[in-house]
Amino acid sequence: MIRRARLYKTEAIVLRQRKLGEADRIVSLYTPNYGKLDAKAKGVRKTISRMAGHLQPLTRCAVQLAQGRSMEIVAGCQTIEAFPALRQDLERLSCALYAAELVDRMLPERVEALATYQLLLDTLHRLEAGIDMELALRYFEIQLLGQAGFRPELEQCPACGSALLGGPHRFSVTAGGVLCRSCADGDVEARPLSIDALKALRLLQRASWPEIARVLPAMSREIESHLRSYIVYVLEREVNALAFIERLRREGKGLPVEV
Amino acid sequence: MNGYVSSAAGPVARLIEEFHKLPGIGPKSAQRLAYHLLRMPAAQARTLAEAIVDVKERIVLCSACQNVTEIQPCRICTDPGRERSLICVVEEPLDILALERTGTYRGLYHVLHGVISPMDGIGPEELKVQELLQRLRSDEVREIILATNPNIEGDATAMYLGRLLRPLGPRVTRLARGLPVGGDVEYADDITLSRALEGRQEVQG
């Protein structure tokens, strides 16, 4: 861990907030140099708080933190980017909250995280723009898994190490990748993965965003479903924001929904 | 564990434990409250106990607006002086108290008892949304004012309800955003300030 001065400044993206006592909140901040850290923001539930508006979730801000005994205290805060379009569109907002929740759950606290910070920031920019949102989320998921140490193995069989030759392929969440034909026979829980989906996943994993934005690989429900079950397996829990994204989808299609 | 209760006598320990469950009450405050009750006149303690039992037994949710009430439907819903075609949707019953203090709103209310929070897994099915839709079907409603808090959860809830309610006919509005009284332009966040600019008004007086 990097040693910090008693009072220090950093850039941060606010991941989430929770109430504390009468007028305070604990904010989860994601910072490039110190990773994820919780800080106490005093008095931000009062209407005339000078910081409340700058500490809303999904705000990129410059914060001044004071080292507290158990938790940092927010001494000052100024918005760098507020992502206004995210807040005025339910689909964009729910996708951005999903991204923030994944970072919050998958990454450890107080570990330097320059790459992941940049990934989250880039993803928020893409969602703010509102184009290719599915693609942006899939890219975010597979890159985040890699950075968190759960890179799905898509080139060679994670069970026996042999190269993946010809299909049919199966993705195994427990093995963390695509199994070869003989290993797949022994893994009853591995699910079929089409060759198109495998190619798209490989591209998402290897290519940079500008390349991907040029090729625009087709995103299918199959790709989404494989990544999602792998994420749930890695986290050992459901991702809350997904339920809301699913609901918006169903309602958008005019399917009946039990409220 | 629970070292702060173990040495106290049985009923006292139980009381400390019960106080400790309340929001904002730590172990020390719980002890202090329990020993304060111990010294209190019996009649006064009984009044407190009865008030707690009363609130749980006599207070119900209004069948129309879902506010807490002891008469069914609640006083606001039955007040003939209220404009019935106007419904103000709030997150919690306490928000009604705040709005009533202003004395400027004369319509009805609807309490959601919560707010949509995707990251905490709280969806519309956990709020009193179905009850609100029911009211729209049975009553003539001209306007719905969404008075959810101006934060991420409040925004999500307002946008979701807006989508759901607009096709049903009424005008759907949301409380304005701007600078609070006693606030400071210098410290205002970007979103508040740009909304305040958008909603600027002719100077009066």
Question: What does it look like?
Answer:
The complex is a heterodimer of chains A (259) and B (205). With 259 residues, chain A is of the alpha+beta class. Chain A is 41% helix and 22% strand. In chain A, the strands form 2 sheets. Chain A has a 5-stranded mixed beta barrel with strand order 1-2-3-5-4. In chain A, strands 7-6-8 form a 3-stranded antiparallel β-sheet. Chain B contains 9 helices and 6 strands; from the N terminus they run H-H-H-H-E-E-H-E-H-E-H-E-H-E-H. In chain B, the strands form 2 sheets. Chain B has a 4-stranded parallel β-sheet. A two-stranded antiparallel sheet of chain B has the order 1-2. Chain B is globular. Chain B starts with a helix and ends in a 7-residue tail after the last helix. Classes of the chains: A alpha+beta (259), B alpha/beta (205). Chains A and B meet through helix 2 and helix 9 of A and helix 7, helix 8 and helix 9 of B.
